[in-house]
């Protein structure tokens, strides 16, 4: 099975009008119309999902930046998978390091992954180490984040999960992790998945995130053995983001 490439735009807490949100998406669509075999997912702030629900078409999709770990009830301020799926939102970023920093633990992240799957939303499970040492501690940490995040996920669901590997020190930084190190980590992630779900899991899409921009994306995709990117800053600029999408083909 040939895996489709994918680029996910994580707008974070940026873009402050419906008009700007719509314009950014339509500009990216215009510039990337000819791109085939690559899925593009826009993850705006929750409040724009409703007005952007006409976005999904062909290889363009909507995603959320988070969902609640509960489906419904007395949870003031939370947004449920049941809410976002009303607006044709088919992906959700789960466990981003910026949320982990706010105290989100693996158990909560796992609940979110399971709730997304049970609502036909593809979870983009974010994992990544804060720092590296010479003793391979980061590899163990990644393994634990995968095992804990995917607890209870069945073999029949695993291909709906995407893993976004984002070393925390590269997020918002000037440079991404070296592509050779990304490659090594991607092999390690595949090994961990194989241990849990069997060789079938080779088809799980693995993304890299952290300082991806239009001038480094080609090199990463050519050398790092990943299926796409999770992009923060450069997803806010239609020209730059479109160049990243085009660099994957
Ligand atoms: P960045 O963010 O591309 O601005 O480094 C990536 C992310 O946080 O997902």
Which tags fit this structure?
globular, 8-stranded parallel β-barrel, binds 2-phosphoglycolic acid, about 250 residues, alpha/beta
What does this structure look like?
Helices cover 34% and strands 17% of the residues. With 249 residues, it is α/β, with parallel strands linked by helices. Strand 3, helix 2 and strand 4 form a beta-alpha-beta unit. The chain starts with a strand and ends with a helix. The model has no long low-confidence stretch (mean pLDDT 97).
How much helical structure, as a percent, in the residues? 25-40%
| Cα-atom radius of gyration | 17 Å
Q: What amount of the residues lies in strands? A: 15-25%
Question: Pairing-aware structural class of the strands and helices?
Answer: alpha/beta
Shape: globular
| Strands, total number | 8
Number of helices: 8
Itemize the secondary structure elements and their pairings.
Blueprint: E1 5-10, H1 18-31, E2 38-43, E3 60-64, H2 81-84, E4 89-94, H3 97-100, H4 106-118, E5 122-127, H5 137-149, E6 162-165, H6 179-197, E7 205-209, H7 217-223, E8 228-231, H8 238-247
Parallel strand pairs: 1-2, 1-8, 2-3, 3-4, 4-5, 5-6, 6-7, 7-8
Helix pairs in contact: 1-8, 5-6, 6-7
This protein binds 2-phosphoglycolic acid.
Residues 10, 166, 171-172, 209-212, 230-233 line the site of 2-phosphoglycolic acid.
